[in-house]
Write a structure and sequence with these properties.
The protein has five helices and eight strands; from the N terminus they run ββαααβββαβαββ. It is α+β, with helices and mostly antiparallel strands. Strands 1, 2, 3, 4, 5, 6, 7 and 8 form an eight-stranded mixed beta sheet that branches. The longest helix is centred in the N-terminal third of the chain and has 19 residues. The two termini are 26 Å apart.
C-alpha cells in the first residue's frame, strides 16, 4: 500500500471521512430534504468542505502535532492538500452536463426549517473501476460525507447515505454492491457508525501531513 494516495486528475481526494463529532442518534428528518447539488450550491459546498471537513480534521489531530518542530506544524493549507482540494464548480458543471452518466455525483441535505433553505451537508461519491476482464472491480468510492456542526445528530448523515444507495441502485446497479471509503483513525464516532451500516475494515494507510504520518482506515461494504 502506498504511503499516500494521490489526488486524482478530477481533483477528488482519495481519502474520505464523515466529518462529524456526533453520530446520527436522533433521526429527526422532519425538516431535512435531499436533492442533487446544483451550480448555485458551489459556495455552500466550498464552505462546508473547509469548515466542517478540513478544519475538523485539523482540530481532531491537533495533539499529534503538539510539541512538533515548526517544520512539522500542519497548517490549513497542509491539510487541504493532504485531504484533497475539490473544485466543486468543475464537478457540478460535469454533473449537470452528464446527468446519470456522470461518474462523480454530489447530493446535498437542505434544512427547510430556516427562513431561507440552508445547505447543511453533502455526500460526494464516485463510480470507479479497477482491473480487466473477469478481474474487473466496479465499486463506489465515498469521497466525502460532511454535515455542518450545528446539524449533527439529526439524521442528516443517514439520509445522505441512504439517498446515495438509492441513486446507485437506480442509475448504476453494477456499482451499488461494493462501497468503499477512508476514515481517519482518530474519527471514532463515524467509524463506529460505518460499522453499524455494514462496513468492515479493509486495511490502513498513512497520509503524510507536514512530515507526520496520519493513519486512515480503509472500510468496505459489500453485499452478497
Amino acid at each position: 500500500m502506498a504511503a499516500q494516495e494521490a489526488v486524482s486528475s478530477d481533483g477528488l481526494s482519495r481519502t474520505s471521512t464523515w466529518s462529524s463529532s456526533a453520530g446520527d442518534t436522533h433521526d429527526d428528518f422532519s425538516d431535512l430534504t435531499i436533492r442533487p447539488a446544483l451550480r448555485q450550491d458551489v459556495l455552500d459546498l466550498g464552505r462546508l468542505h473547509e469548515e466542517d471537513y478540513v478544519e475538523v480534521h485539523r482540530d481532531m489531530h491537533r495533539r499529534m502535532f503538539q510539541g512538533a518542530l515548526p517544520r512539522h506544524s500542519a497548517s490549513m493549507d497542509d491539510w487541504k492538500e493532504a485531504l484533497g482540494p475539490i473544485d466543486f464548480e468543475d464537478v457540478l458543471t460535469d454533473l449537470v452536463r452528464l446527468g446519470d452518466k456522470s461518474e462523480v455525483r454530489v447530493l446535498i441535505c437542505v434544512d427547510e426549517a430556516c427562513e431561507e433553505s440552508v445547505v447543511v451537508g453533502y455526500i460526494l461519491f464516485e463510480l470507479r473501476q479497477k482491473g480487466r476482464g473477469k478481474a474487473r472491480q466496479r465499486y463506489c468510492e465515498v469521497v466525502n460525507v460532511v454535515v455542518a456542526k450545528g446539524h449533527r445528530g439529526r439524521g442528516a448523515g443517514r439520509l445522505l447515505f441512504e439517498a446515495m444507495l438509492s441513486d446507485l441502485s437506480r442509475t448504476a446497479p453494477a456499482f451499488s454492491a461494493d462501497v468503499r471509503l477512508f476514515v481517519a483513525q482518530e474519527n471514532e464516532v463515524p467509524m463506529n457508525w460505518y460499522t453499524r451500516l455494514g462496513f468492515k475494515t479493509g486495511g490502513m494507510q498513512s497520509e503524510k501531513i507536514a512530515g507526520v504520518g496520519v493513519p486512515f482506515v480503509r472500510m468496505i461494504r459489500r453485499l452478497a
